[in-house]
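Q:
Got a chain?
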Amino acid sequence: MMRGEVKDEKTKALCDAAFSRRKDRWKFLRTVVEVGVVALLALMLYRLFFVQEEYRPYSESLISSEPDVTGFIALSYFGVDRNGDTSARIGHAQLEKHLKALREEGYVTITQQDIENYYLHGKPLPRRALFLMFEDGRRDTAILAQDILEEMNYKATMMTYANNLLTRDLKFLQPNELLELEESTFWEMGTNGCRLEYINVFDIYGNYLGEIDPLRFAQVQPYLGRNYNHYLMDYIRDKHTVPKESYNHMKSRLTYDYTRMKELYEEHLGRLPRAHVLMHSNTGRFGNNRDVSAINERWIREMFPMNFNREGFCFNQRNSSLYDLTRMQPQPYWPINHLLMRIKYDIDQPIQFLPGDVKRQKQLLLLEGAAELDEETYILTTLPEGKGLTRIEGSEGLHDLSLSVRLRGNAFGAQQIFLHATEDLASSVCVEFLNDQLLVLESLGGTKQELYREKIPVILGEHILSVEEHRKEAEVQENLAFSRYATSDEQGMEYLARAKARQEQPAATVEEGAEVYEGPQSFHARSNHRLDISLRGNALSIQVDGKPAATNLELHVPEGGGTYLGASWQGEAWSQRNLSDDVYDAVFDGLTLRSFWEDGDEDGTVVFSTELKGTAKALYTANAVWEAVIGWFLNNL
C-alpha cells in the first residue's frame, strides 16, 4: 500500500466532505440543545435561590368550625424528577397535576407549628388541611418542586438525612442551600434521621448480606424480599438471626446516631429540625424489637415535638398521637384519580374525581370507579380492593370487530376488555392482562371457563429464567455490588473473585426441566404492551406486541352485547414500600375499536378511538418528540 493511501473506512469518512458537513450539523444541533438545556437549568436554579414570591399563610376564614373531626392529611413524596420515569421520584408535570387537584378540592398547606398548635393547644385547622413533605433532601426535588409550590402557594417540608450534610454528592442539597430554601418561605426543614442504611439483609434465597448502604442496596434490591431492616429498627444480627451485639452495644449505637444527628444539624443548620420521620414505619411501636423501640422512643420524644411513625394512610385526627402520625407516599405512576381515590376513602368525605377531556368521552360511560381521558390515554381507576368498569357506547351488537390498544397499567392487577358482553357481564368474553399473563375467559350465564392463559414473556419469546438461573444471577450481582463498593482493594478483589467463580458454575434451565422462577408480584412493576384483538364470527385471535398469542379460539358466547373496559385490583401482590395500596389503574393508550360489516372489508369502520386527530395529533406528536430529545440530552450530557 502506497504512503498516503486511504487505509480504512474511518479514514475515508474523514476525507468525505459531505460526511464532515453532516457531522458538523449534528455537532451544531447538539450544542444548541445542550446550551438550551443548561440555560433552562440555570433559570430554574435562579428562580429557586433568588425567588421573589413569598408564601402566604392560609386565611382564617378557612378554619373549620368542627376542630375535633377535621384533622389533616399528610403526603410524602420520595422526590421529583423531570419525567417521572424512575422507580421512586414523581415527574414534574404529574406532581403539578396532583397538587393542583388538591388545591381545587380546597386543600391548603399547614406548617409544623400548625400541627403542634392543633395537638398541644387545641387550635383548629382549616377544613381541608394538607401537610406536604419531600424525602431524601435531593437537589432536583427542590429545583423542580419550587415553581409548583409558588404557583399553588403551598409550603412543604424538606426531609434530609444528617449524614448527607457532609456528603459531596451533588444529588443532595448542601447546608447553605437548605438555609436558602427556608429563606424562600416555601420550605421548612425536617429529618429522616442520621443515616439511610440497612441491616439484617437477606435475599429471597435466604443468603445473608448483613449490613449494606444505599448504593449496595439499590444494586441488589431486585433480589430482595421483605427480609431486611433499617439501621435503627433492630439489633444487628448474624445469618442465624442471633444478635451480634449486646443490649448495651445496641443502646450505644442508637444513642450515637441520635446525638450525632443533633450535632450535625446544629453545626450546619444552626438547629435540629422539628419534624421527624422514623425509617421504616408501621412496626406498631418505634422498632421491630421491644428493647430497640424503647430507646428510639426515648430519643424521639426528647428531641422532636412530632414524629411520623406510620405510612400508608394519610389522615391524622385529634385522637392521633403527635408521635404516631401517619403519612401516605404517592408513587410516581399514580394518576390523579388514584391519589384522590386513596384520600377519599381515608378521610371518608366526598371528593370530585377529574375526568380529563370531557368532550371526547361521550362514548365512554363510566359504571364503576373513576376515569380520566388524558390526551390519547384512558385511565380507569378501581375502588379500593374493587373494580373499575366502563362501557363503550355504540359498541352493542357488533358481529365482527377488532380492537387495538397499548396497555400501560402496572404488571400487577388486571386490565380487562369485555366483548359481546351483557350489562351484568354474566355473558361475555374477557381478554385481560393479569399479573403479567394474558388470560381469556368466557362467561355463559355467570359460569366462567378459561380458554387461554400464558405468560407475556413466553408469548414474546423471551428467555424464561429458572429458579437456579435466577439464584445464580442474584448471587453474582450481590458479590459484584460488594466488590464495587468495597472499602479496600483486597476486599474488592475477593468479592470479584467470588462473583466470577459463581458465574462459572452451571445452572439448569427451564428447557432442561428446572423449576420456572415466578418471583413475588409487586405493585410497582410497570408494564407496557400493545394488544391487538380480532373477533370474526365465533373465532378470536390475539397478538401481543405483534407476536401471535391466541389464534382462532372458538367462542360460544351469543353475538350481541357491548364492549367494556375493566380494571381490577388483585390482592396477592406485595410492596415493600407501600403495604396498603389497594387501588389499581388500568391504562388504555391509543385505543381503537373497529367493526367489519361486510366480507372483504379490510379497514373496517371506527366505532370509537381515543387517538387525537388533525392539529391536536400533530402537536401531541411534536411534544412527544421534543420530550424524547430533551430526555436523551439530560441522560447523556
